[in-house]
């Protein structure tokens, strides 16, 4: 009985059982990515940064670029795409992959196939450790990169229990993205990065570095879809390049 209060205190203090909010940044804040992960499995990704602020200045009035990002709920991945009318389009990622697959099947002949080794993506190898904003993790470099203090690691992975939920979510989303790209007909890449992400939470990857991690409670409303998902035909309309569809050439003024 004396042990129960201690166990309860440890349970309540364990970050892994709390929601997780992590923020990544690239190029000095030019682009940021905030990842919100609920203990129930929902996830939301929101993009921001200086680049988005520049786009806001040029965006149509009423277009809410702060909504740009994605939501994962009930095992389904959704992309949130703000429209010029102020409404947010909700696109199932599996529908987006289906449209990309149709496009690739129709136009793949227009593109040259990359070399086989390039299609597999860079092979990553562990080489020491690196510290990112006060957190230290295992550093991974391209296999052909020369050892030098000027060469930045491709990824830095932490096994800190405080970041366990973040690591699980990031690996799951990377694997889902690669699977969807593969189903759409794009080259199968990322097997080396997938193996790296399986080792923990990324402090740095794809040019982005982890800045902050909090375990504040996330309101359930953050994971509610802002609109009904678009139909497959609507996704085709949204994603098909206008010139390919033959819609813009007539509208464009000739010199």
How would you describe what is shown here?
With 255 residues, the protein is α+β, with helices and mostly antiparallel strands. It has one domain. It contains eight helices and eleven strands. The protein has an eleven-stranded antiparallel sheet. Helix 3 crosses helix 7. It is globular, with a radius of gyration of 21 Å. The C terminus is likely disordered.
Beta-strand residue percentage: 25-35%
pLDDT averaged over residues: 82
Indicate the low-confidence ranges by residue numbers. Answer: 6-16, 244-255
Number of domains: 1
What are the key terms here?
single chain; 255 residues; alpha+beta; eleven-stranded antiparallel sheet; 8 helices; 11 strands; 31% helix; 27% strand; globular; disordered C terminus
The gist of it:
The protein is of the alpha+beta class and 255 residues long. The protein has helices at 3-13, 50-58, 93-107, 116-119, 164-183, 191-197, 232-239, 242-245, and strands spanning 20-26, 31-37, 43-48, 69-73, 76-82, 88-92, 124-132, 135-142, 155-158, 201-205, 208-214. The protein is built from 8 helices and 11 strands.
């Amino acid at each position: 009985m004396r042990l129960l209060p201690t166990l309860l205190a440890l349970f309540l203090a364990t970050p892994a059982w709390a929601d997780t909010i992590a923020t990544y940044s690239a190029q000095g804040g030019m682009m940021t990515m905030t990842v919100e992960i609920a203990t129930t499995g929902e996830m939301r990704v929101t993009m921001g940064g200086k680049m988005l602020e520049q786009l806001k200045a040029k965006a149509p009035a009423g277009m809410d670029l702060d909504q740009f990002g994605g939501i994962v709920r009930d095992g389904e991945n959704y992309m949130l795409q703000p429209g010029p009318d102020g409404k947010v389009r909700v696109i199932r990622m599996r529908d987006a992959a289906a449209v990309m697959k149709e496009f690739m099947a129709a136009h793949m002949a227009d593109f040259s196939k990359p070399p086989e080794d390039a299609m597999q993506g860079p092979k990553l190898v562990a080489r020491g450790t690196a510290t990112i904003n006060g957190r230290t993790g295992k550093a991974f470099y391209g296999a052909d990169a020369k050892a030098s203090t000027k060469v930045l690691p491709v990824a830095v992975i932490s096994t800190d229990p405080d970041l366990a939920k973040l690591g699980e979510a990031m690996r799951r989303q990377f694997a889902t993205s690669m699977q969807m790209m593969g189903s759409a007909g794009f080259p199968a890449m990322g097997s080396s990065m997938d193996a790296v992400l399986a080792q923990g939470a990324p402090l740095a990857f794809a040019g982005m570095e982890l800045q902050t991690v909090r375990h504040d409670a996330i309101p359930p409303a953050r994971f509610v879809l802002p609109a009904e998902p678009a139909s497959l035909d609507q996704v085709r309309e949204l994603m098909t390049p206008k010139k390919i569809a033959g819609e813009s050439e007539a509208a464009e003024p000739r010199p």
